[in-house]
Structures are given as structure tokens and as C-alpha cells.
Write a structure and sequence with these properties.
Layout: H1 7-13, E1 20-23, E2 27-31, E3 39-45, H2 60-77, E4 87-90, E5 106-110
Antiparallel strand pairs: 1-2, 2-3, 3-5, 4-5
Bound molecules: adenosine monophosphate (AMP) and zinc ion.
Length: 118
């Protein structure tokens, strides 16, 4: 379930503090510590999966639930409504994909521009 050396597993367990946005049995959501924009949170499955590269059909349920939560949480966190507002979803995967933390996570980024990055 958990990797004792993984920073996001430690956040899920409460061993490292985070600004929690949402939690259920399978999913934990918290603000990124270095936000690019007025809204920038990370969504992780509680199950330790290193990246998108490890996904199999058994993960379709939790991944689908994460995706369907995105619009609700984005709006609750301050993203303006589509189409003038909206948000950006990023899932960095592997070194060439720019991934730094190896616990699968979705970046949800949005809010009024200008953004600090992106
Ligand atoms: P990635 O490059 O996709 O692996 O992104 C990792 C993200 O995790 C970066 O945007 C970091 O700012 C963020 N991050 C790293 N440590 C923490 C932490 N303790 N709490 C919240 N976000 C973090
Ligand atoms: Zn982990």
C-alpha cells in the first residue's frame, strides 16, 4: 500500500503536514507547496503507484473517480467556470516526462491569470 520512503505516502499518512483539499477512502488531495497559479493542487491515489506507467485495468476505477472529481474541486478551489475560466491538468511521468515525486499525481492548475508559471 505505502512506500515508507515516499514523500506523498507520508503526506497521506499525516507524517508530513499538508493543506488538505479533499480526502476519501482511495484519494487524497492537497495544495502544491510551490504553486504555479492561484489554484494548484495535487490529486493522488492513496495506493502507492510510482507513476502513470504502472497503471493497469485494475486502476481504472480510482483513476476515473479522480478525473470526475477534478471539475468539482477545481471550482471549489477558485477556478472560474468553463469556458472563460477552466483549469490545466498535468501528469508528469518518468524523468523525461519531468516527474520529480514518484507517487502518481495529477496537477490541477488554474485561477485568474497571470500565473507564476505555465
Ligand atoms: P512532479 O514534478 O510532477 O513530480 O511534481 C511534484 C510536485 O510536488 C511539485 O510541484 C512540488 O512543488 C510538489 N511538492 C513537493 N513536495 C511537496 C510537499 N511536501 N507538499 C506539497 N507539494 C509538494
Ligand atoms: Zn507513495
Amino acid at each position: 500500500m505505502r512506500d515508507p520512503n515516499c514523500i506523498f505516502c507520508k503526506i497521506i499518512e499525516g507524517q508530513i503536514p499538508s493543506q488538505k483539499v479533499y480526502e476519501d477512502e482511495e484519494i487524497y488531495v492537497f495544495n502544491d507547496i510551490h504553486p504555479w497559479a492561484p489554484v494548484h493542487f495535487l490529486m493522488v491515489p492513496k495506493l502507492h503507484l510510482p507513476s502513470m506507467a504502472q497503471l493497469g485495468p485494475e486502476h481504472a476505477g480510482v483513476m476515473g473517480r479522480m478525473m470526475t472529481l477534478v471539475p468539482k474541486l477545481a471550482q471549489a478551489q477558485g477556478c472560474n467556470p468553463y469556458p472563460d475560466g477552466g483549469f490545466r491538468l498535468i501528469v508528469n511521468t518518468g524523468d523525461e516526462g519531468g516527474q520529480e515525486v514518484h507517487h502518481l499525481h495529477l496537477h490541477v492548475i488554474g485561477g485568474p491569470r497571470p500565473w507564476r508559471k505555465g
